[in-house]
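// run 5 | inverse folding | seed 20
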């Protein structure tokens, strides 16, 4: 069937605008004004984005299956102790799905690319909150249960999701209507310093990750004596942390493609590995959370803070609302300019490379 369909052609780095460039990736680029149909068809041809899409799209179904298993097997509506796990699994479904959609449709236009990744960043911030909610409910060491830190942990995590989404969106173009607007979507400061946006994005996601893991880091590496929650689950937590730092390393360094530009354009470049190890890390994180939930349940139900709608589903809904508001504010100049038809990019076989580089 696919042999009867004409697949979109691919381009080299010199044939697409800089906004679509990836560090040390030379070929395999899709047309920068692809139609939605072309974007979907590109799933079935080898481009430098194909495995980026599939390495997150397929795991979405795995996490959805895990979510449905919890919903169908557990008494989730009457047992509030399962609500944190429910929030976490929903975030595990959302972030790879948002990522795969962003990578699929990001070549429809320059503006579409920015908006797609705004949603990607919002989904990642929700995942960070989902992690925090389960850590507060199941993972926090006995010593810290009911402490002042424990009481303010979720509210601070919600604030961190807002900061994460806002800073990540800011890293692409700056402040809407101040550093970019419907007349110009080029952020001049980043043209002069193309690594600045990447640094801001790393910072945007490192800060909530490090904060969310404070209870776990203390439990695994600093706590001594009674109340340290030293159990068999710690091995799974160690594995997840190692994979998390590996994914951060791959995202920041662009290895291995930086060592041999053009050799890993289609298979094996850092963003693909970042996706793969990130998903594996999320799997081990999920396994650790579920094991802590089961083994510590009697003690936590007796001594820990009560699990309520406010500190689980309510916090997640508030985070989603605030993140969507931020995404709307950053997208509004781009959407408004698109509806007015200003600065429309003409479809060309050999587009002129211009603009700033964003990843």
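// decoded
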């Amino acid at each position: 069937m696919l042999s009867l369909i004409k697949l979109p052609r691919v381009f080299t780095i010199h044939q697409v605008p800089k906004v679509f460039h990836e560090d040390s990736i030379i070929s395999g680029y899709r047309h920068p004004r692809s139609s939605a149909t072309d974007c979907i068809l590109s799933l079935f041809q080898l481009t430098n984005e194909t495995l980026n899409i599939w390495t997150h799209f397929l795991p979405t179904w795995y996490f959805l299956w895990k979510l449905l298993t919890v919903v169908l097997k557990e008494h989730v509506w009457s047992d509030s102790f399962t609500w944190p796990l429910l929030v976490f699994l929903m975030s595990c479904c959302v972030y790879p799905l948002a990522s795969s959609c962003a990578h699929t449709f990001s070549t429809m236009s320059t503006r579409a690319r920015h908006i797609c990744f705004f949603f990607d960043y919002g989904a990642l911030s929700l995942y960070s909150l989902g992690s925090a909610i389960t850590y507060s409910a199941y993972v926090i060491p006995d010593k810290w249960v009911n402490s002042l830190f424990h009481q303010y942990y979720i509210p601070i995590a919600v604030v961190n999701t807002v900061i994460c989404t806002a800073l990540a969106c800011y890293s692409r173009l700056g402040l809407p209507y101040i550093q970019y607007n419907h007349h110009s979507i080029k952020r001049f400061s980043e043209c002069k310093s193309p690594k600045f946006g990447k640094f801001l994005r790393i910072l945007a996601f490192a800060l909530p990750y490090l904060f969310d893991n404070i209870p776990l880091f203390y439990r695994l590496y600093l706590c001594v004596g009674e109340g340290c929650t030293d159990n068999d689950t710690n091995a799974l937590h160690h594995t997840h942390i190692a994979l998390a730092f590996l994914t951060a390393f791959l995202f920041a360094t662009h290895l291995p493609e930086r060592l041999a530009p053009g050799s890993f354009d289609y298979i094996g470049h850092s963003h693909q590995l970042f996706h793969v190890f990130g998903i594996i890390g999320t799997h081990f994180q999920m396994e650790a959370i579920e094991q802590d939930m089961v083994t510590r349940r009697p003690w936590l139900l007796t001594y820990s803070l009560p699990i309520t709608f406010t500190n689980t589903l309510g916090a997640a809904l508030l985070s989603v609302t605030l993140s969507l508001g931020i995404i709307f504010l950053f997208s509004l100049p781009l959407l408004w300019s698109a509806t007015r038809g200003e600065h429309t990019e003409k479809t060309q076989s050999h587009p002129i490379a211009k603009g700033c580089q964003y990843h």
